[in-house]
Structures are given as structure tokens and as C-alpha cells.
């Protein structure tokens, strides 16, 4: 948690320099509190790097495709030739991502993670899937992660402007 605190301070300091006045000085502290509430409920002082990265990626302003690719990179196993995600790694990713809606009382049970894992690996005979299959599954908007594209679309609408005046 201490290392993550330092990294977040540095990250948000850089953003404040790039975008003066747009980032609250307490953002690093608030983000760390959120991550601790999601991934360190027992107060051990330890948060897995991949879990924190998954949350930061999910909550970033990046495009959905960029987020999906980043998830794959963080959770995939590299065998020298290609990268792939195993059922175990996918369960871990889904469990980590499920902590985001859980913190606001909207998460689902462990069985939801199993159902989503099964749907991703449906018809797959190999012990792992490649990025193309992973991305295709995420684009189908699995129920467990439906909040992610929904939040992205809501944030994207903030950037839309039109020249129509309402009465």
C-alpha cells in the first residue's frame, strides 16, 4: 500500500502539471482509499499489483479496446511465442474487476465469475485463449462486466456537444 501510495502521488502530480487546475491535490489519497477498500478490506497493508492495475485501467479514460488489451497484457501468460489467458487468470481478472461494482453494492457472487469464465471458454479445447478470442468475448459484453462499457459510454457522452438549442 505504501509503494502504491507513492506511485499514485507521482502519477497524479504529473497529471496536475499537464492539466493545471483539473486534478484535485487529494486525488492520490482518494484513489488509494478506494483501492484499499476494494482489495485490502482486512487492512493487511498489501494490495496485489495486478488488482490495482486492473482497477486503474477499468477506471481510466481510455477506450474500451485499449482497456481490454491492457487487461489481457496484465493477466496473460507469455510462453515466448504467444500470450494467452488461462481460466485461472481470467477468474482472477474477473474477481478483481468485480470489486469495483461491489464497493458500491452492485457486485455479484463468485458463481457469476464462474459463469462468465465458462462463457468465455465455451467451445475452447485448449487450456488458454489468445488475445483475439478474449477481445471477442469482451466485445460481446458479458453480464458480469456490463458496467464497464456502460460507464465508458456515459463518460463518452460528456464529450458530445451539438449546436441545437433546447427550449
Q: What are the salient characteristics of this protein?
A:
3-stranded antiparallel β-sheet; 8 helices; 60% helix; 167 residues; 2 domains; single chain; Recoverin, domain 1; mainly alpha; 3 strands
- What string, H for helix and E for strand, traces the elements in order? HHHHEEHHEHH
Rg (CA only): 18 Å
The quaternary structure here is single chain
Note poorly predicted spans.
none
CATH-wise, what's the superfamily of the largest domain? EF-hand
Sheet/helix structural class: mainly alpha
Known CATH architecture of the largest domain: Orthogonal Bundle
Which topology of the largest domain does CATH recognise? Recoverin, domain 1
Number of strands: 3
Kindly provide the name of the CATH class of the largest domain. Answer: Mainly Alpha
Tally of discrete structural domains: 2
> Distance between termini?
51 Å
Pfam families: EF-hand_3
Organism: Struthio camelus australis
GO biological process, one term: synaptic signaling
Protein name: Dystrotelin
Can you characterise this structure?
- By secondary structure, the chain is mainly alpha-helical.
- The chain folds into 2 domains: 1-47, no CATH class; 62-145, EF-hand (Recoverin, domain 1, Orthogonal Bundle).
- It has 8 helices and 3 strands; from the N terminus they run H-H-H-H-E-E-H-H-E-H-H.
- It has a 3-stranded antiparallel beta sheet with strand order 1-2-3.
- Helix 1 (2-18) runs antiparallel to helix 2 and helix 3 (49-59) packs across helix 5 (87-103).
- This is Dystrotelin.
Amino acid at each position: 500500500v505504501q509503494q502504491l501510495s507513492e506511485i499514485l502521488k507521482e502519477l497524479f502530480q504529473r497529471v496536475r502539471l499537464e492539466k493545471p487546475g483539473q486534478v484535485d491535490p487529494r486525488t492520490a489519497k482518494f484513489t488509494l482509499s478506494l483501492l484499499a477498500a476494494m482489495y485490502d478490506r482486512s487492512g493487511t497493508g498489501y494490495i496485489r499489483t495486478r488488482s490495482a492495475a486492473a482497477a486503474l485501467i477499468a477506471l481510466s479514460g481510455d477506450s474500451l479496446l485499449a482497456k481490454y488489451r491492457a487487461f489481457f497484457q496484465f493477466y496473460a501468460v507469455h510462453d515466448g511465442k504467444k500470450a494467452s489467458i488461462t481460466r485461472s487468470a481470467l477468474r482472477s481478472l474477473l474477481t478483481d474487476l468485480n470489486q469495483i461494482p461491489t464497493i458500491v453494492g452492485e457486485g455479484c457472487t463468485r458463481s457469476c465469475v464462474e459463469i462468465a469464465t465458462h462463457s468465455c471458454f465455451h467451445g475452447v479445447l485448449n487450456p488458454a485463449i489468445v488475445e483475439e478470442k478474449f477481445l471477442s468475448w469482451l466485445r460481446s459484453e458479458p453480464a458480469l462486466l456490463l458496467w464497464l462499457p456502460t460507464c465508458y459510454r456515459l463518460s463518452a457522452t460528456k464529450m458530445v456537444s451539438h449546436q441545437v438549442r433546447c427550449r
